[in-house]
């Protein structure tokens, strides 16, 4: 069945490609692109790293839940959204996202995530002496939360364009 009337919400771990793929998809479908991390940054007037440093992770998670809620203000079929890798941790966020659109998991292995963002310096949770180990642990802790999706796509070894094409083919959009 065609999913063209649904909003599309990309979830998944850091480095899965949600923002890059989301932008491509939004362009292709002629929809607006929303990035929940960017929403938080513009509301708070600070970068994600600064928010973690000055206010802590709990504060960030509250802001993240508000960003998730704001996706409900848009009509169906109007946007493609990329979300932060931890948004699925809260049950309330999971049910908000399900209401807001089709939830699409971009899967990435620990090794590939490490290659893509391990040294980027702008992921506070990976600011760790052993980032690959940290990624493995977080993926393990989060796997049940990520399991609540409508569709999933493996991204390892694929370009953002290839992933975008695959999503369009599967969703017939
Ligand atoms: C986080 C992922 C980040 C950002 C924050 C926390 C997480 O977003 O929201 O650093 O908990 O996995 P990306 O998934 O876009 O890197």
Distance between the termini: 10 Å
The backbone outline, from C-alpha atoms, is globular
Rg result: 15 Å
| DSSP E strands, number | 5
Helicity range = 40-55%
> Can you identify the CATH class?
Alpha Beta
Give the CATH H-level superfamily: P-loop containing nucleotide triphosphate hydrolases
User: What's the average pLDDT?
Assistant: 96
Strand order of the largest sheet: 2-3-1-4-5
The CATH topology corresponds to Rossmann fold
What is the name of the CATH architecture? 3-Layer(aba) Sandwich
| Helix-strand sequence | EHEHHHEHEHHEH
Largest sheet: 5 strands, parallel
Number of domains: 1
Unreliable spans: none
What is the strand content?
Answer: 5-15%
Structure, explained:
This protein is α/β, with parallel strands linked by helices. The chain has a single domain, classed as P-loop containing nucleotide triphosphate hydrolases (Rossmann fold, 3-Layer(aba) Sandwich). The protein is built from eight helices and five strands, in the order βαβαααβαβααβα. A five-stranded parallel β-sheet has the order 2-3-1-4-5. Helix 2 crosses helix 4 and helix 3 packs across helix 4. The protein is globular and about 45 Å long. The model has no long low-confidence stretch (mean pLDDT about 95). The site of shikimate-3-phosphate (S3P) has 10 residues, from loops.
